[in-house]
Amino acid sequence: MTKVLRKIGGLRIAVGIGLVLCSAAAGFAAASSTENPARPAEALFLQLGKVGLDPARVYQVRGASLERSAVHITLEDGTIAFTQDVMGRVTGAFFEGDGEILLTPPNEVERKSMSLFTGMAILEERFATAYFRFNDDTMTELRPDLRATDNAQEFVARWGETVHNLAQADAMRLLLSFSHSLPVVATASSSDATRLRESGDRMLHARLQGTKLGIFDVYFDSTAAEQVVVGQARTAESGVTYYDVWTSFALTAPGQAQDLLEQSTESESPRPRVDSIAVRRYEITVDVNPPKQIHTEARLQLDVTRGEERTLLFELSRFLQVESVEMNGQPVEFIHNPAIEGTQLSRRGNDLVAVILPEPTHGGQKIELRFVYGGEVLAEAGSGLLYVGARGTWYPNRGTVMADFDLTFRYPPGWTLVATGKPVPISAATPVLANGEQEARWISERPIPVAGFNLGKYKVATVQAGNVIVETYATAGVERDFPRTPMQVIESNPAAPVPRQRVLIAPHNPSPVDTQLSVAEAAARAIQYYAERFGPFPYSRLALTQMPGRDSQGWPGLVFLSSYAFLNEEERTQLHFPSFRRLLQQQIPAHEAAHQWWGDLITWSSYRDQWFSEGLANYCSLMMVQEKNPAWFREIMNGYRDDLLEKNKDGVSPMDAGPVTLGGRLLSSHFPEGYEAISYGRGTWLFHMLRTMLLDATAQEPGRKARNGSGPDEPFVRALRRLRQRYEGRSLSTREMFDVFAEDLPPALRYEGKTSLDWFLVGWVNGTALPRLELKAVKFIPKGSSTVVSGTILQKDAPENLVTSVPVYAVFTGKKLVLLGRVFADGEESSFHLPAPAGTRKIVLDPNETILTSPR
CA 701 to CA 753: how far, in whole Å? Predict the structure, then answer.
């Protein structure tokens, strides 16, 4: 599949720091190889990362178990050795023998995810070896089942190097726990141990060698939003390594009923834990040295909402090296820690930087951190065409949280720099920069979740969208690896006398500057269209800058626009894109403009909610297509459906990758294109279904007339305006979004009489099915001046609990269609009775294809 809309990388996958650690913990490495007594945190980190087995702590173990809520690990018979002390604590162990793990995911979504990777809905696997890492009293927990052994030295010799190599994986996570006790002392005091337990910080990582599933990881982390994660690093046939998350879920309160567990976890994502540290403001000064280098000073203003933090984690591109970190003007320790290939952190191009504070924070405290760093974070794609974003985030951040940005850039003459925010004049007192360098300052107009910049030898085109300035920055050429149209050879008529002549037609190389004005105009039209429906554009300007590759990426007020978006129709045809893809490429400016509302003005709460940003931005752009050319709209929607159904060589389709609420987990070794097909394709279809349901159901109300347009007053658009008004500048969960849509829910959409869209959430948002709908036993009974139509709707290839609102139409002479009403198809068979106009003799289900179903 050609990716032309929006990349997964950068900061667009909002996964909490806790889950980042869980999913990435399989491969952290120490950032240094020598211990420095003046850097106690580094010394602790390195000790945690190279701890080995203790020959004095090797035991026979039988019938022991580790219970961590849903995780049940049994060590039936074997040998176990514990690691050497770190700060007086035992933090790990290695087991060899017969063991078993049992884990039951709490809901159908997670059971299906587990089955996709393991072939079983529950994890019940025997293992021969196990490596454990923990921050609690696990050794004490196992002590009653330990016995002396006489093969200690042999066991340590066999497994010692393995343990030493694996120790690095959890060093950063353990540092978060144990840094509270810095500076390091010979033995941990009882008060330290008590504080650790009372803080609720409890972590267990088990790396198991399964007899059938190979090596996989099980995590329990009480501080994460989703405390249980199971996954495996796996390399696909393409050679790309993925970290497949088999299951991930939050624990529920003790004693919660199973039926409530099913309902809540099926339709809701856990609310992410409120960060104890909030970054309120960034002041960043960047020296840009094309083609690749930057050198940066970043000042972060932080508010402490909750105390007791000693170590703060930030994401930063792996291509940038931190030189120093200061807190309130004083140097502090930091550790730059690389991530393993295949994890979400790695795919974003980022590593972790841990900043160790001199003492624990306290609520209400204000902190200023100053980072100095530099490196090759820019990528060069051709003469005068650079881009930022493919190599990770360029400033230290703790996720997509709203903050103010004040950005100053110094860069050589001859280049044009564009950034998020609004350009402001540099003070007249500023001296002239050496070597004719330019200086530019950009300040955000409101708190924004992310900031970016782009640099190139651009030409600019400007248009107005009301009071919004829309600018397009493009170069004369495309990137070096842009596909070239092959040279054509035209021969004279073969029947003509020899010698025949050949005519060579040189290909036309695209030039983005030729179409940059039309691209700006397309974005301006989209802004005006959205502003009429969702409220004013959030910023005073929108800059669209050419970016190499097939992916585009939006930032507040700034869009990195794929070079493919600058192609005209002839150029797209010459590159032999399918018609479906060519139509989508035309919508890139409108799609990215929609993200200024859905994704930038309103962000998602967790990775399970990111789908609404992609699906809604995409659907908003397609609403414009539907008004302009319904046939094009239908072709695009059919293309998305076909992508979901296309089987790979193993006979499975992307639709089986999981529901939209799995977010970045959809990108796996089983389904490298799963994220694209589900988040864009199914996500777009879900919003189309919701919109048409609201239109039809509203038309069924007494005194209402059917509305086919997409004006500002239609129910779907009214709900989006409410979303914007209530959640601008905030994060939004899937549950909160659907609660807003349900506020004015027409009676025809109230399943079982409830003013709720839970039936749609559970069956469609958290489902994967594309059912087939059929009619059976249809009867027409005259009744006075009308007709009563009865029959049964069959819902095939669908879960038993799938509920679908199905539009039923009467067909009259000339193929005229009349909506009779919407019927809830609940399960495999659902009977209905509907009033119809006199003379009705034929009915059809969903003739306009407004439901995501398999082709008939």
Answer: 15
